[in-house]
Amino acid sequence: MAVELVGGALLSAFLQVTFEKLASAGIVDYFRGRKLNEMLLKKLNITLLTINAVVDDAELMQIKNQPVKVWLDAVKDAVLEAEDLMDEIDIEVTRCKLEAESQTRSTTSKVWNFFSPSSSSFDKEIELKMQEVLDNLEYLASKKDILDLKKSSGFGVGSSSHVSKILPSTSLPVDSIIYGRDIEKEVIFNWMTSDTNIHNNQLSIVSIVGMGGMGKTTLAKHLYNDPKIEVIFDVKAWISVSQEFNVFKLTRSILEGIIGSTDDSRDLNMVQERLKEKLSGKRFLLVLDDIWNENHMQWEALQTPFNYGAQGSKILVTTRSLKVVSIIQTNKEIRLKQLENEHCWQLFSKHAFQDENPQIDPDSKKIAKMIMEKCQGLPLALKTIGSLLYTKSSFVEWESILASEIWELSEDECNIIPALMLSYHHLPSPLKRCFAYCALFPKNYVFEKDIFNSIVVG
């Protein structure tokens, strides 16, 4: 499952490479010099742009939608065919240049020979194959509406209709105990209860940063629900932000969280005025969970009413992005790392054995710890795989899980893939290409830094 899923997800990276090749001077000059149909290039570019507009949404949908995954694979194959054709053209162009340079003719003659009309079988074959690729891609592009693929919203990836399928977080903690985060919790709690920035107008913001599944939201929940917090703040609200950063909707959600009822504001000005009224003179705590938006102007628009709160008000943010931390001008940054082995075992055992200190036979403990180590200190993986083991009573099944790849588990059994794939979708195109290159190597392959850098840069 993992290899197939990654293959589909890398389409956006392949498309960026194809766009660059299509725009290269060598390809354009070849078509012009050989008097080939330049409209093929223009139509191909437009068709690829049409596909590219919905590819982010498709990459998200493929996790649960098999027809979309089949469509992605077909598009990827067609795009690779187009790349192969352009590589053939590059080889032909290079061959012609080398032949021209080897002859003792004038510069004018070289240029004329290189770009002179040709009726060679190669040119005809290229034109014919390019038309076939274009026809195939146009057909695939025409199916995007049938598959209900939406244009990317511009912030994050995918359409809001599909993003909303990811459950928003709530302020209620699922677990009564949080493992391995006592130090971080104490640091943040001391900051939240201190008078930092009380003598200036700067917002007091703390950011919990870490990759998906690291436990950012869990830590924020335990802080938000700490009884000692209740007596410090006049009002508090928990907002699950996620990928769609709509200032009006978020402001209204914050207001509704504070007043405990539905708000009927019709525009941003109205809802911000109401929020300003509710926050004025009050010490508030606001948790903004899972922020992805990296647009500074949108953040400024959202935080305007916060400035009317009383001194000592605090904002707690969770995010995967260090750029978000910079944009919101955080005062305190907490970076979460993988859990230590002791805490890994406690969390894993709680879900695998319903006991953080289980009394089990040595063989079972040995295989359980080997499976635990595969989770590499990631709380989400420990919890998910531990819960899976709880449903497997047979020792043989445990051995099978140990021998298998975690990513081969179905989504019903393992929700790690959707959680971590979001991180991939938010990578810049150059890093997606780097990811595609890394995906060619086996798991746990050790890269030499200098060699890897030279290959990627080259």
Question: Would you spell out the secondary-structure blueprint of this structure?
Answer:
Layout: H1 2-9, H2 11-23, H3 25-33, H4 39-61, H5 66-102, H6 107-115, H7 121-141, H8 160-163, H9 182-192, E1 204-209, H10 216-224, H11 227-230, E2 235-242, H12 247-259, H13 268-279, E3 284-291, H14 296-303, E4 314-319, H15 322-327, E5 332-335, H16 341-352, H17 362-374, H18 379-390, H19 395-403, H20 416-425, H21 429-438, H22 449-457
Parallel strand pairs: 1-4, 1-5, 2-3, 3-4
The overall strand count is: 5
Secondary-structure element order, N to C: HHHHHHHHHEHHEHHEHEHEHHHHHHH
User: Can you tell me the residue ranges where pLDDT is under 50 for at least 5 consecutive residues?
Assistant: 1-8, 114-119, 154-165
Could you tell me the radius of gyration in angstroms?
28 Å
Mean pLDDT: 81
Helix percent band: 55-70%
Give the domain tally. 3
**Sequence of strands across the biggest β-sheet:** 2-3-4-1-5
Number of helices: 22
SS-based class: alpha/beta
How far is it from the N-terminal to the C-terminal residue, by CA?
31 Å
Shape call:
globular
Work out the strand percent: 5-15%
Biggest sheet details: 5 strands, parallel
